[in-house]
Specification:
Blueprint (H helix, E strand, L loop, with lengths): L2 E5 L2 E4 L4 E8 L8 E6 L6 E6 L6 E3 L7 E6 L4 E6 L8 E7 L18 E2 L3 E6 L1
Parallel strand pairs: 2-11
Antiparallel strand pairs: 1-3, 3-8, 4-5, 4-9, 5-6, 7-8, 9-10, 9-11
């Protein structure tokens, strides 16, 4: 069974940084693209970043481009999200997610329905 466990969330002041981690288990991590989503209160869950199987190719939502960096360490079965220059509007629960099929290319994985496995989420709160 695939398991995803996020960590690294917390409370930070605007302009600060946080690094989220997503530890994966249950299958060959390096064979699957991965993504980070977030969901703010009253809003839909949105994709903010995705990474290819090898970690070379990435996708970012416009709202985080230039501030967030997605990466992965396949030797450690872990994906990361480095978040810099945080803003109050970044406040949300952040989720890591994985698709069901290894053949799914990262660039096609844009919506929650494209992912089969989810972590429990980690809260990020940015104070002004």
């Amino acid at each position: 069974q695939v398991q995803l466990v996020e960590s690294g969330g917390g409370l930070v002041q605007a302009g600060g940084s946080l690094r989220l981690s997503c530890a994966a288990s249950g299958r060959t991590f390096s064979s699957y693209a991965m993504g980070w989503f977030r969901q703010a209160p009253g809003k839909e869950r949105e994709l903010i970043a995705a990474v290819s199987r090898g970690g070379v190719r990435t996708y970012y939502a416009d709202s985080v481009k230039g501030r967030f960096t997605i990466s992965r360490d396949n030797a450690k079965n872990t994906m990361y999200l480095q978040m810099n220059s945080l803003k109050p509007e970044d406040t949300a629960v952040y989720y890591c997610a994985a698709p069901q099929f290894a053949s799914s290319a990262y660039i096609t994985l844009r919506f929650p329905r494209d992912y089969a496995y989810w972590g429990q989420g980690t809260q990020v709160t940015v104070s002004s």
